[in-house]
Amino acid sequence: MRALAGLGNPGDKYGEHRHNAGWMLLDVLLRRSRVLEKRNLEWVELRRIELRERGRKKTSRGGDELWLMRSMTYMNRSGLGVSEGCAALGISPDEMVIAYDDIDLPLGALRIRPAGGDGGHLGLRSIIRALGTQQLPRLRMGICGIDAPPDTADYVLSRFKKDELETIAEVIEVAADAVQEIQRSGLTAAMNAYNNPGA
Q1: I want to staple 79 with a disulfide (CB 3.0 to 4.6 A). Which of 26, 51, 127, 188 is the partner?
Q2: Known catalytic residue: 19?
Q3: What is the CATH number of the domain that holds 19?
Q4: What pTM, to 2 d.p., does this model score?
């Protein structure tokens, strides 16, 4: 893996929404890491980081490097930013992982997959169209609480409830651990270690 693309919507009002789990993951990885290089393109922010294990200080040496992609478009146009980032970095689709929220998974669940369809996720659909392939490794983070309403569009743009905040904070940290496992040991090892049973 050479890059991680975390999906979300720009703007402060979306910062704590369920749909921004991908951006939350980028923020955790940035917090854990040392930023080596920054590039701001038309549609995407790129950050090359040196990864740190959870709890290690930024001043320690020897971490693995990874590009983080933050598409600065709205979710349903994520393909613009991700394709621009891939072109700028010379990265093929199978060399990155897409991280995003999944309403079909219960809150706290993780699921890593090497490829597949968009599952109704408009951000992933945009990326598949832009890159012309479904062969996109992905890290799905469950956001569905026990009282999710049938109107999923409004639900994904809602904030996590107070009693869900601790769970989502921990799952984002675990997702960051999973990213580091993918980087260190590969997708299959990370799937074995982090895919939740029954999710």
Answers
A1: 127
A2: yes
A3: 3.40.50.1470
A4: 0.91
